[in-house]
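Per-residue structure
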Amino acid sequence: MKRSGILNRHLAGALAELGHGDTVLVCDAGMPIPAGPRVVDLAFRAGVPSFAEVLDGLLAELVVEGGTAAREVAEANPAAARLLRESLPALGLVPHEELKALSAGARLVVRTGEARPYANVLLRCGVFF
C-alpha cells in the first residue's frame, strides 16, 4: 500500500496515464459529466471531499500548465474563485456553457462532493522537464 500521495487506486492509475496536453476536469457534484472521458467519482456525501481538498491533492501530483474555469465563478462562488486564482496563475475564464463543451474533450473527470456552484476547473497537464 502507498504510504503517501493519492491513495485512491482508480485516481492514482488514471493520473499515471496522463500526458502533456491532456486535460482533467475537476468538478462539483452538480456538473454534468460528459460521455467518453474516464471518470473517478470521489463524492462521498455533500461537501466531502471538498473541491479545495481534491484540487490541492491533484496539484501536488500533477504538473499543470494552466486551467480554465467558468467566468461565473467570481460572482457565484467567491471562495472557489479565490482558490483558483491562487492555485493557478495561468487561469483562463470562459462562459459556463463553454466550459461544459470543453469538458467533453477531457481525458479524465474527477468528481468531488462539493455542493457549491461553479466549483469546477479544467486542468491542462504539462511535463516535468
The CA atoms of residues 73 and 79 lie 9 Å apart. Residues 51-61 form the longest helix (11 residues). The two ends are 28 Å apart (CA to CA). The chain has a mean pLDDT of 95.
